[in-house]
């Protein structure tokens, strides 16, 4: 199988003759959305130990930022992975100048930032959000940047948002993956590895597959034809789901208004 960040592609029924000992997988359909949960209970497998949730829309549709049911589903799954209280730092990973890699920075633009602000609603969870940009341009690794931000903000958890790689073209722009294992790209060349062992706090990840490795070789990638729409709608939807998970006392409409969407 080519590179994939999607746990259910590695351990699902279509993965083939692969050792899946220590892996639990279950799927449920809610309306027009399929939710697949993968729990990896031991080390040494293709993905780090932990919980993964894949939320998939029908094969003929793209993620819709106006789909409240989809937002609520993603928010509920993310809330189950998050610590129940405490500040959260949302980190938008990627290069905003490269469309396929811009999901993280674009999502940060939709996050309701509450740290340092006085909002008229009580019970608001402290949230900070930042997109540090391309680490090579700053001469500082993503790991060092993340550690510095964690040290400054002192959150209870770090939530990383990044573009993902899929092995299946029909899943591009139609799937969300959430995990509590940190950021662990399938491609070891990416240098985007962030986890609890490195940073000393829970590290979660959220993303949408926006590219796949071309069959012709590892130096070529395939992206959706409507890539601009995938990134725009996907970032807005992820932002809404993250806001809803972090601020459950507010409705989706209230959160969109407060976040300026």
TrEMBL record:
Q: Name one GO biological process term.
A: spore germination
Gene3D superfamilies registered for this protein in UniProt: HybD-like
Q: Does the keyword Isomerase apply?
A: no
One MF term in the entry's GO annotations: peptidase activity
Q: What Pfam families does the entry give?
A: Peptidase_A25
What's the top EC group for this one? hydrolase
Record-listed E.C. numbers: 3.4.24.78
Its domain of life reads: Bacteria
Task: Give the record's keywords alphabetically.
Answer: Hydrolase, Protease, Zymogen
Q: What is this protein called?
A: GPR endopeptidase
Q: What is the source species?
A: Candidatus Faecalibacterium intestinigallinarum
